[in-house]
């Protein structure tokens, strides 16, 4: 069996001799040359996704004013940012809506404005302390005027995701887009055979510290994402049949481009952010080759009824990504038109860009510092009675 | 016979004129109102789908302009900002006419203005707000 190491592949990258293909191109190579030859020839396969990922945001450090302030309440363009860190640190969450413009502008728009180099109004309030006497501030910042600005997204790059439909008699406005009544459309949000974690189903090569494409620059996998759930049922090819693994990712906002980070508003749902992620996967051996050459027809998800207001919605059909991308799927015996929510076009651009970086020797692969968890038990939130408190004071 | 989409803009003083009535009665045009934003003492806007004989449409245009109302033949009643669009496809989930559709080889959004009903459902379905009320492309005729 042909075996390559990260080090050997990086040596070839440094010499600009690495053979790199996207996860779509590798399928054609396998068809032409067979898996054994493809595994021998190809060093790296690039994967990518560009979809709305709500669990995103940025850490910022503003620098100290004269006299200094310990910011307790913070607003950026009227979007509330977290004031529970040190004096001039904050976290701006992508989904936080503007207090003035509602869902048309939110944390994601602030992040996009910062990336675009725009001036953003910073207002903050403080209770004032001996060491931080100032009690309020009203000024403008941009990405060059502040210290650190880095994206830290707690849950991105979902390994597979539900498709959505609506059996009710009214239109539903959801994070899966506008769902028309009486099962008139199905939406889905995965780049299928190009999607990062679907190409490394057991996280053999993607782990903590993996260098990635994030928002137009180099970023890293920081941790497993929240709700990381590798223990989902899987197909024979190893890919999960429902939303499974997730990644927490980090990268320098100042180097990003709004081509690959875009603010979004889902009508009557809220603000979200399109996040562009590309992950290189080393073809270490024939098993990895088999993983990265997975095809849309062998990747499955289920269509869920979003009109059921429950955390366990009924699944109406199991469908492949080949069917979803064909433009219609069968639900309850009827052909229903499909629409994507993640941009395969931009995902392809990301996979091609990352391929270029690696081929040019500008981007080396990283062996994970630690693996992602291979088991998990994602808990629900139960509503329970509080513990007895002395004096009967519920806290 | 022709079928065209037209945009009519009424200055505040002309909003109360029954222009649509005359288009039907005097010029034998079949009218379908696609969008109407009319209020007393405000600029009014109408988007109409007009079907009729070419010479009648021409005469109707002259009549409307004579009433002090702007008359423009348009391609479509929504404007698609190609630069802003990320080609996600969310708008295609709701477009009833197929005017907004995905090219499934390139995964690019394709907009066919002639097929647009001006229902405006796409405006709110677009997460990056790349579709707005307006006209796509240059007006086809003055």
Brief write-up:
The complex is a heterodimer of chains A (395) and B (142). By secondary structure, chain A is an alpha+beta fold.
Structure explained in plain terms:
The complex is a heterodimer of chains A (395) and B (142). Chain A is an alpha+beta fold and 395 residues long. Chain A is built from 7 helices and 26 strands. Chain B is of the alpha+beta class. Chain B folds into 2 domains: 2-74, Alpha-Beta Plaits; 78-133, Alpha-Beta Plaits (2-Layer Sandwich). Chain B contains 3 helices and 8 strands. A 4-stranded antiparallel sheet of chain B has the order 2-3-1-4. In chain B, strands 5-8 form a two-stranded antiparallel ribbon. In chain B, helix 1 packs antiparallel against helix 2. Residues 137-142 of chain B have low confidence and may be disordered. The chains are: A alpha+beta (395), B alpha+beta (142). Chain A binds chain B through residues 50-52, 104, 177-180, 185, 187, 262-267, 272, 274, 325-327, 337, 339-346, 348, and chain B through 86-90, 92-94, 102, 104, 106-108, 121, 124-125, 127-129.
């Amino acid at each position: 069996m042909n075996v390559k190491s990260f080090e050997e592949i990086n040596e070839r990258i440094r010499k600009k001799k690495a053979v790199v293909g996207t996860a779509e191109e590798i399928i054609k190579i396998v068809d032409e040359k067979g898996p054994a030859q493809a595994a021998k020839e190809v060093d790296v396969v690039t994967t990518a996704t560009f979809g709305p990922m709500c669990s995103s945001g940025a850490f910022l450090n503003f620098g100290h004013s004269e006299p200094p302030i310990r910011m307790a309440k913070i607003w950026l363009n009227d979007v509330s940012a977290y004031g529970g860190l040190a004096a001039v640190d904050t976290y701006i969450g992508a989904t936080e809506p503007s207090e003035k413009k509602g869902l048309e502008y939110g944390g994601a728009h602030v992040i996009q404005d910062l990336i675009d180099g725009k001036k953003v109004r910073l207002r903050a309030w403080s209770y004032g302390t001996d060491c931080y006497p100032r009690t309020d501030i009203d000024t403008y910042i941009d990405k060059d005027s502040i210290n650190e600005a880095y994206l830290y997204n707690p849950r991105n790059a979902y390994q597979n995701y539900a498709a959505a439909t609506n059996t009710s008699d009214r239109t539903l406005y959801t994070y899966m887009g506008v769902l028309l009544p009486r099962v008139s459309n199905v939406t889905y949000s995965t780049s299928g055979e190009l999607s990062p974690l679907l190409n490394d189903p057991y996280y053999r090569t993607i782990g903590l510290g993996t260098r990635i494409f994030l928002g137009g620059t180099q970023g890293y996998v920081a941790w497993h994402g929240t709700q990381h759930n590798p223990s989902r049922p899987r197909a024979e090819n190893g890919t999960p049949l429902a939303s499974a693994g997730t990644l927490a990712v980090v990268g320098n906002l100042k180097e990003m481009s709004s081509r690959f980070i875009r603010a979004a508003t889902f009508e009557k749902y809220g603000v979200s952010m399109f996040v562009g992620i590309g992950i290189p996967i080393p073809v270490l051996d024939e098993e990895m080759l088999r993983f990265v050459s997975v095809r849309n027809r062998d990747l499955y998800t289920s269509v869920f009824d979003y009109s059921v207001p429950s955390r366990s919605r009924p699944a109406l059909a199991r469908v492949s990504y080949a069917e979803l991308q064909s433009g219609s799927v069968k639900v309850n015996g009827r052909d229903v038109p499909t629409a994507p929510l993640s941009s395969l076009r931009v995902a392809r651009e990301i996979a091609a860009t990352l391929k270029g970086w690696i081929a040019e020797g500008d981007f080396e692969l990283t062996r994970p510092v630690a693996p992602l968890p291979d088991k998990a038990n994602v808990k629900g939130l139960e509503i329970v009675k509080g513990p007895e408190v002395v004096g009967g004071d519920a806290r | 016979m022709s079928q065209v989409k037209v945009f009519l803009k009424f200055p505040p003083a002309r909003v109360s004129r029954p222009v649509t009535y005359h288009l039907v009665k005097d010029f034998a045009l079949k009218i379908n109102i696609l969008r109407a934003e009319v209020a007393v003492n405000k600029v009014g806007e109408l988007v109409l789908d007009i079907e009729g004989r070419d010479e009648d449409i021409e005469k109707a245009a002259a009549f409307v302009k004579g009433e002090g109302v702007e008359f423009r033949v348009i391609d479509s009643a929504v404007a698609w900002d190609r630069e802003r669009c990320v080609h996600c496809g969310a708008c295609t989930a709701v477009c009833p006419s197929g005017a907004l559709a995905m090219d499934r080889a390139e995964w690019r959004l394709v907009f066919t203005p002639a097929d647009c009903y001006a229902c405006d459902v796409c405006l709110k379905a677009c997460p990056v707000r790349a579709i707005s009320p307006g006209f796509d492309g240059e007006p086809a005729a003055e």
